[in-house]
Design goal:
Elements: H1 11-37, H2 40-54, H3 58-65, H4 73-80, E1 91-98, E2 106-114, H5 125-128, E3 132-139, E4 145-146
Antiparallel strand pairs: 1-2, 2-3, 3-4
Length: 150
């Protein structure tokens, strides 16, 4: 019998091969799902917040923000109110979410805001040029929000 001449495969080794393949596939699918869904709670919090701001419900947005005791409602309105720093906000788009390179207990969610409804397409250069990016810090433990540390 030569090196390349092999006999019929035994049933035990075929079953083992399928079990190992199934376990590897399950691990790969699990890792892929974790990677793509790892910031879903923070993105959902940012989306709820921006929806409340865009509809003008600043009370609800302030509650979602979970402000620190030193950040009053008037302080909040100076940023997110009808005449605030980021006003007017009609539509938004969540761009990305990531943990800062130096680590931390939160996630930085980058949101692009626009004063136009619907959100301007990239071909609409005049409207798109007026869009602004806002970085929001969302704590993983309690989903409280603030601006990211410098």
């Amino acid at each position: 019998m030569g090196i390349l001449d092999a006999g019929p495969e035994e049933p035990k080794s075929r079953a083992l091969r399928y079990v190992i393949s199934a376990v590897a596939l399950a691990l790969l699918l699990g890792a892929s799902m974790w990677y793509f869904l790892r910031y879903t709670p923070e993105k959902h919090t940012a989306e709820n917040f921006m929806q409340a701001v865009a509809t003008g419900d600043t009370q609800k947005a302030y509650q979602i923000w979970h402000p620190h005791a030193s950040f009053s409602y008037q302080d909040f309105l100076s940023f997110w109110g009808p005449n605030g720093y980021y006003s007017p906000i009609k539509t938004y788009r969540i761009e990305s979410a990531e943990v800062p390179p130096k680590g931390g207990t939160g996630v930085v969610v980058v949101v692009e805001i626009s004063a136009y409804d619907p959100f301007p397409k990239s071909e609409e250069t005049v409207k798109s040029a007026q869009n602004r990016e806002v970085q929001l810090w969302i704590e993983r433990s309690d989903q409280s929000m603030s601006f990211p540390p410098p």
